[in-house]
Amino acid sequence: MYKDKLNYKLLNILILSTIIYLGIITFDYWIGFIIKIFYLVFPFLIAFIIAYALSPLVRKIQARGVRKNLAVAIVVLVFVGIFAGLIGLTVPLIYEQLISLSRNMGEIVNDLSKVFNIDINQYQSTINTYLNELIGSVGKYVSNGLFNFLSQSVNFLTKFIIVAIVSIYFLADMDQIRHAVKRFLKKHNERAYQLLRNIDDELGHYLEGLTIFMIIQFFEYSFLFWIVGHPNWILLGLLASFTTVIPYFGGWITNIIAVILASVVSPSLFIATLVICFIFPNIDGYIISPRVYGKTNNVKPLWSIFAVTVMGSLLGLFGILFALPTYLVLHCIYKFFEDDIKDKIESKN
After folding, report:
1. What pLDDT digit, counting tens, does each position of 64-105 carry?
2. DSSP letter (8 states) at residue 246
């Protein structure tokens, strides 16, 4: 009799509210512990993600008859060399070009005034002021960053070495790890194994498509900027390639840098660069990208931007880089349990 009168929905709401309340009032006690655990595990998590992303390249090299240890060494050396070279080339070059832009702003303003037939000389002093402040900020940031880096070099180098070494071990043992996880899940929970297999297929398709798209972006933008006579065409091709890991926002980074570098060369190059930056990203987004990724990773722009915003707020640069893969994993989990969720909702109605 009392069972029929018991409101389970209200009871569940009360239990959930109690849990949330207890979590809020004890927030200062458990959040510190969770953050410490997270920072301890984070280098190993990053190492595993790097190894997981690079493992398809190792398998492709092995398929050509190269021994596994040599294939791992080739992939690691190429990855580290390209990343370090890109950072080492980009930062000094952008700073030098900003200084050059500030020095030649008067000439650029006059050229733009003639090209577009407008009088913007009255804004020249304001533009110079903003550029000088920007250069000062960049210089201060670099100097502060260098000081902070030196002061925390031991901690940084320790984590970097841990990530590098563990990544190599994970990469060398990735096949054994995959086989062990597969065997364990198939033995204990067939459905969990199927879910993990779906996630692995989804991420594998994404990584394969991303690799192909990065190669296309490198050759496409290197060729385009070479055609218009941009002096930094190789650098911009590399930037266009590597910034594709940041959905929608990555392309803007390359475009802004390309326009800044072109503006200190000549007005004609500046206009040609603007044309490239406005036209070809649309071709990439609406024609090339859908053909490369296909329908499996057909992510709506709104969800991609939301994922980048949320992950960036939570984890900074790492969150931005892993925003789309994280979304793909969550979306894959939802699709796997979609029928169960719908059946449960319909049964309650």
Report:
1. 888 888 888 888 888 888 777 767 766 676 666 656 655 555
2. S
Predicted TM-score (pTM) above 0.70 = no
Residues of the chain with pLDDT under 70: 1-9, 31, 86, 89-91, 93-157, 247-249, 290, 293-301, 315-317, 341, 343-349
CA distance 214 to 323: 17
For residues 163 and 46, the answer to whether their CB atoms sit within 8 Å is yes
- Concatenating the DSSP letter of every residue in 279-324 gives HHHHHIIIIIHHHHHTTTT---HHHHHHHHHHHHHHHTHHHHHTHH
Q: Where are the domains of the chain?
A: 46-188, 189-336
Residue 149 confidence (pLDDT): 47
Tell me phi and psi for residue 298, to 5 degrees: -80, 85
Instruction: Find all residues with CB under 8 Å of 254, minimum gap 6, and list them.
Output: 221, 236, 239, 240, 243
Closest C-alpha among 46, 79, 63, 47 to residue 172: 47
Q: What is the DSSP letter of 210?
A: H
Backbone angles phi, psi at 211, to 5 degrees: -60, -45
If 0-12 CB within 10 Å is exposed, 13-18 middle and 19+ buried, where does residue 329 land?
middle
Q: Which of 303, 241, 238, 229 is nearest to 273 (CA)?
A: 229
Using DSSP's 3-state secondary structure scheme, residue 39 falls into: helix
How far is CA 188 from each of CA 121, 181, 194, rounded to the nearest angstrom? 74, 11, 12
Q: Which residues contact 297 (CB under 8 A, 6 or more apart)?
A: 202, 205, 206, 209, 328
- In terms of Cα–Cα distance, which of 35, 20, 57 is closest to 215? 57
| Closest to 317 (Cα-Cα) out of 272, 253, 265, 257 | 253
- Tell me the Cα Rg of the chain: 26
pLDDT digits (tens, 9 = 90+) for 185-228: 888 788 888 888 888 888 888 887 888 888 888 889 889 999 99
The beta-carbon contacts of 284-287 under 8 Å, at least 24 apart in sequence, are 284/217, 284/220, 284/251
